[in-house]
């Protein structure tokens, strides 16, 4: 399976990104709980790129590519411009967030907790953020 | 993307979130919560039965009011969360910081305590 979607960088497009990703995940037989978690991780990465890397400029684009192998599922989120490597970002604790009354800062923690691996690299002049999640059961892989 | 319904019931306000709270719609939730607190409501119940999705932007809104709620001695509770939405709170451990009830009855008990 391989699906891909390219969108302009607006906040309102996130809903389409989520529905594209959930359609792909339901197609391979994932449960509602798993679909919600993986879609959330994709949403968090896309939101960060749209807001922080591209300042919500609809002329800039990001591409989401979803594909599976025998063991799991890959989400490649691609854009052009400066590479945004959020692994360098220092994770705040929940106490810090409450103390500072901050509304942001939790998205990346969610992505790290949900996904089995996160990679950042450049390929064909594009930045790629690759999220990977192993299948929890084999029926997903075989569908 | 989200609709908010508010209901004043005796000495409490019920805020009903309908739809999906993400980086685009969380501002609306923020405004409604801020207004409910500024209007000196001392019992705030958030009905999440029709909350279909929440991302960190929405979680952040709730987190950012934890201190204000404590300072102003507001009784605050979320209830009727679907399993998938509750799971998102649990991944981060926010269920330990915010009172969450499975039913409205339980939520009312919490806000009526003390």
Task: Spell the H/E element sequence of chain B.
Answer: EEHEEHHEHEH
CATH-defined architecture of chain A: 2-Layer Sandwich
> How are helices and strands ordered from N to C of chain A?
EHHEEHHEEH
| CATH homology superfamily of chain A | Histidine kinase-like ATPase, C-terminal domain
What does the main sheet of chain A amount to? 5 strands, antiparallel
Q: CATH-wise, what's the superfamily of chain B?
A: STAS domain
Any idea what the shape of chain B is?
Answer: globular
Helix content of chain A: 25-40%
The CATH topology label of chain B is Transcription Regulator spoIIAA
The Cα radius of gyration of chain B reads 13 Å
The count of helical stretches of chain B stands at 5
Quickly count the domains of chain A. Answer: 1
Quick one: overall form of chain A? Answer: globular
Alpha-beta classification of chain B: alpha/beta
Rounded average pLDDT of chain B: 95
Short description:
The complex is a heterodimer of chains A (143) and B (114). With 143 residues, chain A is of the alpha+beta class. Chain A has helices at 14-27, 32-53, 94-100, 107-114, 138-142; strands spanning 2-8, 61-68, 72-79, 117-123, 126-134.
Set out the fold topology:
The complex is a heterodimer of chains A (143) and B (114).
Chain A: E1 2-8, H1 14-27, H2 32-53, E2 61-68, E3 72-79, H3 94-100, H4 107-114, E4 117-123, E5 126-134, H5 138-142
Antiparallel strand pairs in A: 1-2, 2-3, 3-5, 4-5
Helix pairs in contact in A: 1-2, 2-4
Chain B: E1 2-9, E2 12-21, H1 26-38, E3 43-47, E4 51-54, H2 56-64, H3 66-71, E5 75-79, H4 83-92, E6 100-101, H5 104-112
Parallel strand pairs in B: 2-3, 2-4, 3-5, 5-6
Antiparallel strand pairs in B: 1-2
Helix pairs in contact in B: 1-2
């Amino acid at each position: 399976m391989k699906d891909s979607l390219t969108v302009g960088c607006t906040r309102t497009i996130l809903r389409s990104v989520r529905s594209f990703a959930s359609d792909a995940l339901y197609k391979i037989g994932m449960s509602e709980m798993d679909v919600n978690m993986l879609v959330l991780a994709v949403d968090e990465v896309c939101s960060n790129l749209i807001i922080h890397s591209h300042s919500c400029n609809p002329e800039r684009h990001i591409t989401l590519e979803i594909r599976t192998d025998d063991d799991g599922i890959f989400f490649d989120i691609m854009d052009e411009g400066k590479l945004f490597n959020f692994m360098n970002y220092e994770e705040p604790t929940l106490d810090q967030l409450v103390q500072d009354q901050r509304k942001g800062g939790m998205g990346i923690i969610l992505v790290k907790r949900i996904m089995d691996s996160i990679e950042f690299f450049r390929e064909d002049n594009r930045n790629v953020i690759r999220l990977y999640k192993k299948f929890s059961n084999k029926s997903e892989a075989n569908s | 993307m989200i609709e908010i319904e508010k209901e004043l019931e005796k000495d409490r306000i019920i805020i009903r979130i309908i739809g999906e709270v993400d980086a685009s719609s969380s501002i609306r939730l923020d405004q409604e919560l801020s207004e409910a607190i500024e209007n000196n409501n001392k019992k705030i119940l958030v009905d999440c039965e029709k909350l279909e999705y929440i991302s960190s932007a929405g979680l952040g809104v709730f987190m950012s009011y934890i201190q204000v709620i404590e300072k102003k001695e507001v009784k605050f509770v979320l209830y009727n969360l679907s399993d998938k939405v509750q799971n998102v709170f649990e991944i981060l451990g926010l269920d330990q910081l915010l009172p969450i009830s499975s039913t409205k009855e339980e939520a009312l008990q919490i806000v009526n305590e003390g």
